[in-house]
Amino acid sequence: MAKKRKTPTDADVIVHAPPTPQPITETIEKNYMPYVMSVIVSRAIPEIDGFKPSHRKLLYTMYKMGLMSGPRTKSANVVGATMKLNPHGDAAIYETMVRLTRDNEALLHPFVDSKGSFGKQYSSSTAYSAPRYTEVRLDPFCAEIFRGIDKNAVEMVDNYDSTMKEPVLLPTTFPNILVTPNMGIAVGMASNICSFNLAEICDGTVALLKNPKLTTDKLMDLIKAPDFPGGGFLIYDRTALREVFETGSGSVKLRGRYVYDKSAGCIEVLQIPYSTTIEQIMKKMTDLVKEGKLKEVTDFRDETDLSGFKLAIDVRRGTDPDKLMARLFKQTPLEDSFKCNFNVLINSVPRQMGVREILEEWIKFRLTCIKRELTYELEKKKDKLHLLLGLGKILLDIDKAIRIVRETAKEEDVIPNLMSGFKIDEIQAEYIAEIKLRNLNREYILNRIKEIEALQKEIADLEDTIGDELKLKAVIVKQLGEIKKKYGQPRKTQLIYADDLDEPDEDDLIENYTARLILTREGYFKKITHASLRGNDEQKLKEGDEIIFSADADNKAEFMVLTDRAQLYRGKVSDFEPVKASVMGDFLPGKLGMEDGERPIFMRLLTEEFGEDEHFIFLFANGKGVRVPLSAYQTKSARRKQSGTYSTASPIVAAFCTTEPIDLLLVNSVQKAILIKSSLIPLMATRTAGGVQLMTMRGDVTLTAALADFEDKYDTRGCRKLKIPAAGVAVTPRNGAGEQLTLED
User: Fold this and answer.
1) Which amino acids are annotated catalytic?
2) What is the number of domains present in the chain?
């Protein structure tokens, strides 16, 4: 029988208290800030030893595995062992290892001697093999980052589960922070540290150790500029580099290195900027080819092989390779910038520092390491001296020591009896008791005691060194000299100066070809290639619109446009994309930045200089006209806009530009016209001159049209006038031609 369901009562209902509002600032402080600080301190930003935690844990694991010597081991073994210190997944650990390997070519001085495929820093598509296939061991260079680690040179802390110890920092014997490139993105900050040449860094650090007041200029003479594993060229700008040296922020320009094989007609790019990849370069070149801006190139391909990087570019016969490469440097990542942002953790606090300040902080860190290491050695020597002094006491009566041991009834009484018999402490007694019977002879004991004097001298020297900062610095100077001699390499990135570069003119970056330029009354502009015109030359226009300018010009040409508001605009043909005749084109007022409602009335191609006899002809609605020489519009700088180009006393009707006298037909609003030579119009030097009366008009009659090609539009018999002003004669339009304003060159 089914049980009857109990009806809930008020006592069964649980009443929840309303949620307590929490300020967003408190939420961020309690929930978000711990995450932010964890990312900054424990993941993304390197410390003064030049390593992030992931690097440090990996290398220390390999060190403890005994991989400083002996054969290589499978990468998978290293990855598995590293998880005892870095439990963030095998994939992340292996990716960290890949960048540290010699085969990846990401570092000037690799830390991992590798065998197998580890990808390449300069290629985003070259994949690395799985860890079960590749093999690794520590590079001999790692001896310099672990020197003294077993002598308490750095602090050791528990790992995440307190089962083993790991170093807080590695006791690098050189400023690895400036030798190994490092990039990290944290929360709210990032770090991007470029690499410098090891030999130069050693020289600069030694100079700073000897002279703490060393100037930035002197330091820059020693540490010339960043040095990148990929080589290439660095465009030396001392002002920009000074900013990097002093603030840790700025950028340096890099460009690739190439050679030209004339017999094969091929440019071989052998080195590229460290900040880019071959895929990015080839993608940009592909885009340029599709846009028709790289017609000198017939093919390009990645020819990287076991001998090294190579990007091959086949060029057409007759191409100047240097000019082509100058263009490619400007248009592709073959020239790129490395953005410097030297954020480093100092005592778990992120700081942006320049090169000098980083070196000063490293010197402080290294002094601490040296002092800890020497203190460790001092304690060991003191312990040894203490034992030898106890041994010296039994020299006077070896037989007594033997008798004490032989006559002691119980083993646990041997040490106390020796202590009381020779007045020595427990540690010394333990040492004497452990001596083998065969060594209980006078010769052995005398030889050991002879070490006492040498030990005492060594202890005194160590105590003197530890207490004297100058002597500690001398130790660092000596180590840096040894490192430079053993591991120093010539610069891979060569320096070139901006003054020595053959920079291309802006025109060299523009592809040149002939095109038809068309401007309509409504302001629509077209640039049509001749190849496109051969297919279809029927121009699409807006209803009621008409062409007021048409001419052939080079793509590198410039033009001027006069508007109905007495303003002149200059433009470049190359700023406009080619279009087909079947489209309306670009709206010129928008492209040139004209005012609302402003429209073009005249267009002319520009030459390098205006002709001496060339002049504008302006005709106004009040029947007046004026000629103004083009030289009045020349400016010292290439201004994109000029105002006050003609008089605004009366609306403009037409504008012409000519060197020779031309016939002009002036038509008014009552269909009367005069035909005159333009030479009758006076030439005035002032751009805003109102001109003289050309056609007499009464009442509300205005000039409505001025034409230079009028034969097929009007019957002009009887309209010729030899003097001005002149009264108009009635004219008859041909074939129904209206009184549309026509502006022609």
Assistant:
1) 133
2) 5
